């Protein structure tokens, strides 16, 4: 594979594998005489990747070493002076179909390091078709793992394949998972910071989402490949919800989410993560997908979660509402938006779990003085008050019962409380949660029947044959689709 005037195959690894000498060599490779000369930059880039790949097992191998490899490159003067050129060259290398897996791993990791340290790199990635390059790499890998990966292959009754074949396949599969973990993190960063557009989202197909959800494992929270798939699904769902305000498109995450044969492990992990995740961006994504389940079809929402799971959700939301700092009011708004359909559209209406605790916290949040104890009241503080009052006024089982002397066993609710439930506030921001749920299929009337939930038919999307994606040359750009103003 040629990259400018240098071939990766022509770069010989150093004979010295002492870690200290190795890192001196790597830093020296990036000190080109003229940091603005693209030919010299290209030569240094290719040598750095090839040398890092060849010496990986002996001099890098640890997570700390890998991080150092990425940061040494992204903090170099060569990279900062030639950011646009370097990003385009890295993507050109990554788009080569037959590039060795270990080289893809180093290239992908450098891209990820650059993207996490500088948001402008994410913009360059999208500008130079990085979304498509990363997606196509992942798609090809998922198709291979779908056919040969052990995590979704039925156990052999005879015990195993041939020893040689098993060892080779195991090494290949492990390498592909490592590369995929990095690539999924790159897509997650693009989604997290909303750097993609509708054209990017439209290339995501059924098999891609199906594989992510179908191969989820719920018995572990430590597997980084599994965690990367989970986070990518959360971020992808959020993008579907955001773009549904402007475009008619199918939320493919929701499509498989309501099919328990596909989503069972994902939902189990979702509940586990919901109780443990502390990262605010992930908490918001988790809340959005729970909100989607509870609002898109209320008849289905009632039976989606087990009662014990509903209790866990309530426990977590009460805990978070009490623990959120004053400067994180937006996350409190998000939690209150989820709490309303959770209390109204599920079995909780019959069990009235933690009723007094819910009333106490909602009454506290219904006062602007309590929500904004110091400083000027902001829009998010007023939103908190409105959402808390909405829960108290429109969820009947949270309202104080009026004693009926004719039948003391049955609580009766006042007419005033019922009339109050008619009044609702409006949401002005497109990023807010809509009152009736987002138009997942571009149609507010579209919904899934309760029957479709109980049948749980498993879709069988085999990986379709794909044409080789169009590859861009060095620095070449294509016009992006932009919505009409």
From TrEMBL:
Region Disordered, annotated ranges: 413-485
Pfam families: SPIN90_LRD
Top-level taxon: Eukaryota
Organism per entry: Lachancea quebecensis
Gene Ontology CC annotations of this record: actin cortical patch
Protein name: LAQU0S08e01662g1_1
Polar residues: bias regions: 420-429
PANTHER family recorded: NCK-INTERACTING PROTEIN WITH SH3 DOMAIN, SH3 ADAPTER PROTEIN SPIN90 NCK INTERACTING PROTEIN WITH SH3 DOMAIN
Residue span(s) of domain SPIN90/Ldb17 leucine-rich: 223-358
GO terms under biological process: actin cortical patch assembly; actin cortical patch localization; endocytosis
One of the record's GO molecular function terms: Arp2/3 complex binding
InterPro entries, per database record: SPIN90/Ldb17, SPIN90/Ldb17_LRD
């Amino acid at each position: 594979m040629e990259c400018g005037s240098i071939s990766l195959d022509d770069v010989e690894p150093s004979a010295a594998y002492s870690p200290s000498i190795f890192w001196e060599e790597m830093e020296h490779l990036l000190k080109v005489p003229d940091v603005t000369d693209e030919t010299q930059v290209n030569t240094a880039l290719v040598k750095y990747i090839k040398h890092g790949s060849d010496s990986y097992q002996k001099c890098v191998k640890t997570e700390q070493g890998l991080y150092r490899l990425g940061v040494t490159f992204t903090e170099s003067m060569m990279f900062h002076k030639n950011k646009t050129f370097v990003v385009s060259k890295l993507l050109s290398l990554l788009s080569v179909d037959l590039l060795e897996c270990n080289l893809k791993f180093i290239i992908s990791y450098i891209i990820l390091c650059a993207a996490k340290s500088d948001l402008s790199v994410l913009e360059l990635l999208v500008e130079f078709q990085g979304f498509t390059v990363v997606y196509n790499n992942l798609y090809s890998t998922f198709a291979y793992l779908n056919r040969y990966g052990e995590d979704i292959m039925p156990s052999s009754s005879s015990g195993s394949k041939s020893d040689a074949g098993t060892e080779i396949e195991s090494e290949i599969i492990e390498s592909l998972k490592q590369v995929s973990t990095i690539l999924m993190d790159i897509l997650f960063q693009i989604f997290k910071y909303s750097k993609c557009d509708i054209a990017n989202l439209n290339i995501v197909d059924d098999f891609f989402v199906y594989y992510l959800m179908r191969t989820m494992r719920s018995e572990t929270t430590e597997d980084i490949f599994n965690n990367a798939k989970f986070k990518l699904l959360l971020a992808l769902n959020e993008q579907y919800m955001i773009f549904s305000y402007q475009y008619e498109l199918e939320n493919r995450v929701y499509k498989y989410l309501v099919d328990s044969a596909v989503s069972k492990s994902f939902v189990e992990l979702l509940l586990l993560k919901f109780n443990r995740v502390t990262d605010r961006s992930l908490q918001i994504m988790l809340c959005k997908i729970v909100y989607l389940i509870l609002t898109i079809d209320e008849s289905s929402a009632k039976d989606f979660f087990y009662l014990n799971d509903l209790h866990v959700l309530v426990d977590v939301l009460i805990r978070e509402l009490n623990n959120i700092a004053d400067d994180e009011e937006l996350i409190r708004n998000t939690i209150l938006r989820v709490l309303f359909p959770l209390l109204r559209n599920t079995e909780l209406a019959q069990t009235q779990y933690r009723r007094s605790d819910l009333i106490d916290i909602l009454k506290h949040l219904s006062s602007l003085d309590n929500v904004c104890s110091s400083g000027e009241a902001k829009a998010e503080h007023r939103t908190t008050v409105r959402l808390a009052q909405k829960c108290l006024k429109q969820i009947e089982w949270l309202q104080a019962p009026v004693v009926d002397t004719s039948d003391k066993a049955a609580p009766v609710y006042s007419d005033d409380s019922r009339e109050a439930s008619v009044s609702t506030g409006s949401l002005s921001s497109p990023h807010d949660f809509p009152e009736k749920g987002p138009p997942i299929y571009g149609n507010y009337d579209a919904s899934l029947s309760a029957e479709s939930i109980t049948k749980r038919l498993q879709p069988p999307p085999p990986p379709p044959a794909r044409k080789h994606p169009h590859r861009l040359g060095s620095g070449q750009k294509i016009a992006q689709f932009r919505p009409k103003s």
